[in-house]
Write a structure and sequence with these properties.
Layout lengths: L5 E4 L9 E4 L5 E4 L4 E4 L5 H30 L1
Antiparallel strand pairs: 1-2, 2-3, 3-4
Length: about 80
C-alpha cells in the first residue's frame, strides 16, 4: 500500500488535539496542540545527529501540511 507522507488525525478523547502523522523516516506523530512528538523509530547514538537535523525540518513540513489542509476546508 502506498501512503501519503502526512496524514491528519484526531480523537474524540482529546478534543483539542490535532495530530499529523509522518509516514516516512523518521516516522512520528506530532500533536500540534502542544508540539509533543511520539516516534515510531528506535534511534541509537549514531542516528542522533541525523535525527536532530531532520526533526526540525520534518516538523516544519508537518505544520505546513496542516495549514495547507485547513486552508482547503476554509475555501
Amino acid at each position: 500500500m502506498s501512503l501519503p507522507k502526512f496524514i491528519l488525525g484526531d480523537n474524540t478523547d482529546y478534543p483539542n488535539a490535532i495530530y499529523v502523522i509522518h509516514t516516512e523516516f523518521p516516522r512520528f506523530i506530532i500533536n500540534l496542540e502542544n508540539d509533543e512528538v511520539e516516534w515510531f523509530e528506535d534511534f541509537d547514538a549514531e542516528d542522533q545527529k541525523e535525527l536532530e537535523a531532520e526533526t526540525e525540518h520534518a516538523i516544519k513540513l508537518a505544520t505546513e501540511f496542516y495549514d495547507s489542509e485547513v486552508e482547503k476546508y476554509e475555501a
